[in-house]
User: Fold this.
Amino acid sequence: MKPAVFDYVRPATLDEATRLLGEKGVFSKVVAGSQSLGPMLNLRLAQPELLVDITSIPVLTAVSEQRDYVDIGACVSHADVEDGRIPDGSRGLLALVASRIAYRAVRNRGTLGGSLAHADPAADWISVFPLLGADVIVQSRRGTRTVAAENIMVSSFITVLQPDELIRTIRVPKISARARWGFCKFNQKAGEFAHAIGGVLHDPENDRFRAVIGAIETAPIVVADAASLFGGRFGPNLDARLDKRAVLALLDEKNVRDEYNRQLLLVALKRAAKQASES
Ligand SMILES: Cc1cc2nc3c(=O)[nH]c(=O)nc-3n(C[C@H](O)[C@H](O)[C@H](O)COP(=O)(O)OP(=O)(O)OC[C@H]3O[C@@H](n4cnc5c(N)ncnc54)[C@H](O)[C@@H]3O)c2cc1C
Assistant:
């Protein structure tokens, strides 16, 4: 199929982009890498009147490293992260995740901000940024606001973003040299969307012990104090200490009922825990 007719603009500044998005009476949509929006336009699942292409706005591809965090512009691509073109405050986690998203052509164009805004539960960044405790800086004509990455997604393909807002920056806290992480993505073929995601991060210097269970058809489960899932502490044999009942109770709360999925998610978290404790 072909998309319905739309207008297309490619502003050079954030002010111009947010002005266009804020125009009353026009159904406009941001486009970045177009890896998800493109197919939706073609299938006419989305029929905006105006596409605002944000990929020429310098601040959206900018990256700046501070003492405690790295600010990554929303239009930085998965390939930029995979290739190490941005400072790595995650000790390899971001690059690993990026390298397993889709295939290279998609990674060249797909962006971090686009992935978060699209809010596909089976996507990677929507689980990984919450694991790292990242913040998302959102911009509109009204100014900026900061949303914890774990609060961006409301449910499948629905976010807290207003129609006139765009994601400007993802602020990713750096982890310390003593930090350990594990990440497990189950998918049928390399590069496909996830069927289950498990993630564990322990950073004693920053007093962080977090876990994530993702690809659950809604926003991921983020456990900010993961000690409770692992007998109260991080350490050797973390996977053996995983409290399965506690995990299954979390899945119950999110209405994950399918027994196969529940086991897959459990194993994903277990493998992430093993990787974290053995790394
Ligand atoms: C074959 C294929 C396989 C894939 N496999 C995976 C996978 O394994 N894992 C994975 O995580 N992803 C996967 N993806 C998704 C891909 O990685 C992109 O991240 C994703 O398509 C969105 O990024 P984009 O820049 O292309 O966004 P676009 O398609 O341009 O936009 C997507 C949505 O986000 C909005 N948007 C874009 N940027 C912003 C912004 N800065 N602020 C506010 N709203 C914005 C758009 O309006 C639109 O609603 C796959 C895609 C394809 C085509």
Notes: The domain at 180-278 is CATH 3.30.390.50 (Enolase-like; domain 1).
